[in-house]
Design brief:
Blueprint (H helix, E strand, L loop, with lengths): L2 H16 L4 E9 L4 E8 L7 H11 L7 E6 L2 H9 L17 H14 L17 H14 L6 H6 L3 H23 L3
Parallel strand pairs: 2-3
Antiparallel strand pairs: 1-2
Helix pairs in contact: 4-5, 4-7
């Protein structure tokens, strides 16, 4: 896309989104390699943050046809000011969300990327807001169960729907199982 068209679309995205009550301000970045717009949203903490609702609002109100938009919610004003002041409009930002901190988070991230066919995933992204559905959830469950047998149920994936939360749950379950086996191995 040419720069004038990109800038116009970015401006239109911002105009539509800041009119919503959950959004205080935005920074829109275009990733040319993925033909994708990433929208950093300074949230209004009193309002619900929903990628689904904002995506629907964009589809209904955006004059330009935009195929891929990724939302990144930011509660911290300082972090938002830093992002907003950066001149990163044409840079590629490979991971816009939080990065994995544990081995389990890294494993879950790899599985999500494989199943969802999405590169830019942060550990706080909600599975069902970045392309996940019940069929893909079943695929994730199968792959996680191969890696971490009996540590998670399919229902857990609906309850713990971020990489961070599902990884924490898996770690807790595997630690319980490990502790149980240690206790069973002690002879009295």
């Amino acid at each position: 896309m040419e720069n004038d068209k990109i800038n116009k679309i970015k401006s239109e995205i911002k105009e539509v989104l800041v009119s919503h009550s959950s959004v205080k301000d935005t920074k829109v970045i275009y990733n040319q390699n993925d033909n994708e717009f990433t929208v950093y949203l300074l949230s209004n903490r009193e309002q619900v943050q929903s990628n689904f609702i904002l995506g629907k609002i964009l589809k209904e109100n955006l004059p330009a046809r935009v195929e891929k938009v990724v939302f990144r919610w930011i509660d911290n004003l300082e972090e938002f000011i830093h992002i907003k002041s950066e001149n990163v409009d044409e840079e590629i930002r490979k991971t816009d969300g939080k990065l994995p901190k544990t081995e389990t988070e890294n494993d879950v991230l790899k599985i999500w990327k494989e199943v969802l066919n999405v590169e830019n995933i942060g550990i706080d992204d909600v599975f069902f807001e970045i392309g996940g559905d019940s069929l893909k959830c079943s695929q994730v469950f199968y792959l996680l169960n191969e890696k971490y047998p009996n540590a998670i149920t399919l229902v857990d994936l609906f309850k713990f729907n971020t990489i961070e939360s599902v990884s924490s749950h898996i770690d807790m379950q595997t630690n319980k199982e490990h502790s149980k086996k240690e206790i069973e191995g002690i002879q009295f």
